Target: Aldehyde dehydrogenase (NAD+)
Amino acid sequence: MSTGFRFDRLFIGGAWVAPIDGGVRPSIDPATGQPWGDVAYGGARDIDAAVAAAKAAFEGPWRRMPPWERAALLRKFADLYATQVGALAEVETRDNGRAVRESRGDIGLHAQYYHWFASLADKLGGRTIPMDDSVHAFTTRHPVGVVGAITPWNVPLMAAAWKLGPALAAGCTVVLKPAEQTPASSLALAHLFEEAGFPPGVVNVVPGDGPVAGARLVEHPDVAKISFTGEGTTAKTILKAGADTLTRCTFELGGKAPHILFADADLDQALNAATGSAWALCGQSCALGSRVLVERPVYDKVVEAFRARAARVRVGIPLDPATHMGPQAHQQQLEKTLSYVSIGRAEGAELITGGARIDRDGLADGYFVEPTVFAGVSANMRIAQEEIFGPVAAIIPFDGEDEAVSIANSTPYGLAAGLWTRDTGRAHRVAARIEAGMVWVNTYRYIRWSTPYGGVKASGWGRENGIEGLDPFLETKTTIVSTTGTFADPFAN
Ligand code: NAI
Ligand code: MG
Model:
């Protein structure tokens, strides 16, 4: 292993420890289907140990540390992170198969997330509240306590940054449970927290199976909050499991984003965004524009352009910097994607290109699938309603604004949307009518630390990033102080 990180221990209470309940097992490289590294995974008792360490840190050194010192530590960590982008990208790509050019680009931004949240750590003041002269009233903000961060396999380090940045800035401590398919990069992250000098227990990393380690984290009475990214059905399980302990939850649950191309758009630019978004991360990201809504006058042109551009996508070994698109991150996801190709065909959608597993030399053992385009899709087909999480674009024709909006809003999801038009009035009208947490106009998937990210409807609860991204990690306390010290006797007469 060239990166110098070790993955065969859990990171609990500032120490690298062997699992009590779990063990060490190989992590699979989805480009080869073969093990590439040995990774520790924990069970219930390992989670209990991590929560105990996080609780002790929360009640001890972390709570006593002035917020500017907390901020300084986070900045130190962010600077260290920035020096490790190449190594982290290599680890993440080995685990989830994301083309390394994409991993590097994404991971190259993460230090900014940590820096941005660090800059807020010592500015989390409250308000003074206008009252009558007999009292002074003010609010202060306090960390909720131990946070369980449960992350998915498509973007492990990004999800970690979005959760740990605000949690640590708010003064919480964290147990991070990465997805079982892609645990290595989160353990690499633990190395950097250790090296930056975080007090033991502030950050703990315990890979493990969702229904075992994840479930224990959710039901643990000392976990105040779960920050989760993943599937909607898992979120419902978590909500029920956390009910007895009234655990706070925020959920980022994916989507089926409409990417709307009006006929008056700058079509070349729109196609760059729409095709890029269809096949980025091999289709495995929640905000991708997996539904391409195209106004009739340019429909044939757009379908043809998708076919032509699919042929230019270089699918290959993800660590090769020339590769555009790697494999699906694991075998189950490959099977899921291929099953949706069959579903789309059976529903009568027109398969324009792709749709098959790639079996050419060098790729046949990996989970590679062709960039895929369905045209003639109608809004009620399953391939237009359900999250596939593969490189499958569903092109849906429409006539006019009203139909575009009605199709855009016709799925249970509401995470993101994009629209392309040269008409400024239309841009604002349509953006306002779309049910989504985020709308991009004449751009797509522009995502930064400062802009709130999250969904409505089945796409989840709460926001990550932005000032709003801190709210789920904080409680407000209201203090009311009498200026007179007098209190009328209610039983005097
Ligand atoms: P998942 O929701 O099962 O996994 C996400 C995380 O939740 C993992 O860390 C997993 O270990 C954990 N988890 C699973 N069961 C748990 C439980 N009972 N208690 C606590 N934690 C638990 O998602 P999965 O099955 O890996 O992917 C299935 C589909 O979900 C994908 O095909 C995609 O459509 C969607 N998805 C959406 C993501 C997003 O970015 N919003 C990310 C990952 C998946
Ligand atoms: Mg699952």
